[in-house]
Amino acid sequence: MVWRRTDSERTRPHLYYLILFYSIINPAKDLSKASYGIRRGTAALERIDKVLNAENNIREAANAVVPTFNKSIVYKDVSFAYRAETEVLKSVNLEIPKGAMVALVGQSGSGKTTLADLLPRFYDVTEGAITIDGVDLRQMKIHDLRELMGNVNQEAILFNDTFFNNITFGVDMSKPAPNGQTWQEAVEQAARIANAHDFIVATPDGYQTTIGDRGSRLSGGQRQRISIARAILKNPPILILDEATSALDTESEKLVQEALEHLMKDRTTLVVAHRLSTIRNADMICVLHNGQIVERGKHDELLALNGYYAKLSAMQS
Ligand SMILES: Nc1ncnc2c1ncn2[C@@H]1O[C@H](COP(=O)(O)OP(=O)(O)O)[C@@H](O)[C@H]1O
Ligand SMILES: [Mg+2]
Fold first, then answer.
1. CB-defined site of ligand 1, < 6 Å
2. How many Cα atoms within 13 Å fall on the side-chain side of residue 21?
């Protein structure tokens, strides 16, 4: 797949990388037409808004370095405000060791998405710092920082093109495919792991079938599994999952949850969970309340505290 940079993209390198990271649009189209390929509207459009706003504020340091990730991600005394005087995160301290699965739970508006969005530098912290292996995110090359991460959100953002091109979107195919495979083999392998292969090959042209105008021929669960296949193919060490199953019915949620578990294996994952049942086995669960981590620990420990987590849990049973 060829990504042709238009003039406006060349003058907006941050935007270019943000779009790659969030896998938003058909590369053949420009951003003004991006919404054309997006099915149900608002969550996806909010993501695009976020991307455009981030572009204005995020700057790469002049002497930026290529990040490494061997030890841990650390949020140190992180505070954040979208607007002056309204702190959305307050002195958050959080360590995510390499290989761990850390879950964020808490009521709507408590700051979970904001906390996760700071990691790819959609926004910069207002106070404190986030480091990876001890290096401040703001000292890193932005493209390389985002190369470390894959992302699955509440709504998959797909474009009107083939399954193959949707899955490979954002992957540098000028490089050889992993493990001596052809790209076709690598894409199929990713789709199998994502529980997407079977429904893809059942379509008339298999991987060359066009997903359809606005992806409307696919169910929500199928769309999510395509975006999971995309993340599997990208194979990043860090995963950010933000309510990846919350918009699905129970049946497709099961298939997507299974796909997510394959995806999370051997990776470092920050997962924002809507349903607590999906994060029961997390290495650490953090409960956010009004922008602060008010409880943290394993599922059983948190239940035993009989506090916020126990209350959330009771509401869902
Ligand atoms: N782009 C934004 N601009 C201004 N305020 C925002 C923005 N995004 C979220 N907020 C506010 O920040 C707070 C935390 O939101 P969010 O991180 O989305 O919470 P959660 O993911 O836990 O539901 C909420 O009060 C929300 O209204
Ligand atoms: Mg959220």
1. 82, 88, 106, 108-114
2. 29
